[in-house]
Each structure stands twice: as structure tokens, then as C-alpha cells.
Amino acid sequence: MIVTGHFREKRLTRRWPSRSWPYGVNLQGANLEGANLEGTNLKRAKNLLFNQLSKVKTLYSTILDEKLLISLKEKYPTLFEKPDKWPRITK
User: Fold this and answer.
1) Which residues are 6's β-sheet partners?
2) What is the reported pTM?
3) Three-state secondary structure of 4-29
4) Residues 58, 61, 63, CA angle at the centre, nearest 5°?
5) Which of 28, 31, 67, 91 could form a disulfide with 47 if both were Cys (CB 3.0 to 4.6 A apart)?
């Protein structure tokens, strides 16, 4: 499965990708700038790059591959801090 698109100011489902995607989601080329990835499970995500994650709003409580996690925490530690209240997104 390939996921493309722009996730600005959207909150992805907790534990995403879940058991329904046992091999992980392909995030090649996905624009994650400004995305709220709080609590998201991206451990099995495919083609997820450091540059993509460095542009998100938050990675608080996000589950990541260990190499990406260490690199991002070294360069962008504020991404892992508990965020203040998020504005409610309405349709």
C-alpha cells in the first residue's frame, strides 16, 4: 500500500500502522510537514526518511525504528517533548 498526500494539521490514528497493515505502510514521498504524529506507531513504516520526520509538528510518544529515533532525538529533541494542547480540528 502506498500512502501519499499532505498531512498538515491532521492527527493520524494512534498505533498507525496497526495490525491491519502487517508489513507497514509505504511513506515514500509523503509530505509530513506539520503533521501531528503523537502516539503513532511507525516502526514498520517503509521508505520513511529522516528529512520527512524532521518537518513534523510532534513525535511525542511515537514508535520509530531505533536508528531514526536516535538521530532525530540528537538533532531535534523538541519534537519529542509533550506538546501543549492541540487545536481541535473540525471538518
Assistant:
1) 31
2) 0.69
3) CCECCCCECCCCCCCCCCCCCCECCC
4) 100
5) 28
